[in-house]
Write a structure and sequence with these properties.
The chain is built from 5 helices and 10 strands. With 212 residues, the chain is α+β, with helices and mostly antiparallel strands.
């Protein structure tokens, strides 16, 4: 997970290495490090898109240098918050949610096929950073939203959303704030049989427009 504050903005991002592929942890680390390096320049959709494309290339380049890591990949999701707006981005099935007052909305777009009848989750991901033997370009999901005073944002890996429902997540966020909210979400996912590598970040905008 990356939390990158700068003078004019705050970026929070989660990268989740692909299970069943080699070097998933390395792939997620590469993406987090690259976003951290570029953090000061991420201010709008164009700069975020360019950064994600560079992250994707960096994952493939690292796999080219080490054949044992061929096919490594990761998902990523995040939020860049500034006084000009909120840029939400994702590749894969890591997610971003927003909550204003009591309204809870998924802001990211899963790169997954439609669920079959009766299914609530899927392990199939149709787009990732890396994840293939040949270099494949990405088409990140990026959107700009207005800053909402007292708005809250949740960035998480699929370890959370596979374990508990969106209704359960929303209920917990309505009852808890800040670090306590992240802890309670993690606890609920673990009690539901979730994996031990769940990544959760909760960001809150105060009434004066600052963030925490």
């Amino acid at each position: 997970m990356l939390v990158f504050p700068s003078d004019d903005s705050l970026m929070v991002a989660v990268a989740d290495g692909l299970g069943g592929h080699p070097c998933g942890e390395l792939a997620s680390t590469i993406v987090v490090q690259e976003l951290s390096r570029l953090g000061n320049w991420l201010t709008d959709e164009a700069s975020v898109r360019s950064a994600l494309e560079r992250c994707n290339s960096s994952v493939y380049d690292a796999a080219d240098r080490d054949p044992t890591c061929m096919g490594m990949g990761t998902t990523v999701a995040g939020v860049v918050l500034s006084t000009d707006g909120v840029v939400v981005f994702n590749v894969g099935d890591s997610r971003v949610y927003g909550m204003v007052e009591q309204d809870f909305v998924r802001l990211s777009v899963d790169d997954s096929p439609p669920l079959a009848p009766g299914e609530t989750t899927t392990s199939i991901v149709t787009q990732t950073m890396g994840g293939n033997d040949n270099h494949i370009t990405i088409d990140p999901h990026i959107a700009t939203l207005p800053v909402e005073p007292a708005g809250r944002y949740l960035v998480c890996s699929d370890g959370l959303t596979d374990a508990i429902s969106e209704d359960a997540i929303a209920s917990l966020l309505r009852r808890h704030h800040g670090l306590e909210a992240a802890v309670e979400l993690w606890r609920a996912a673990m009690q539901a049989g979730g994996p031990d590598n769940i990544t959760i970040a909760v960001m809150e905008v105060t009434d004066d427009g600052s963030n925490d």
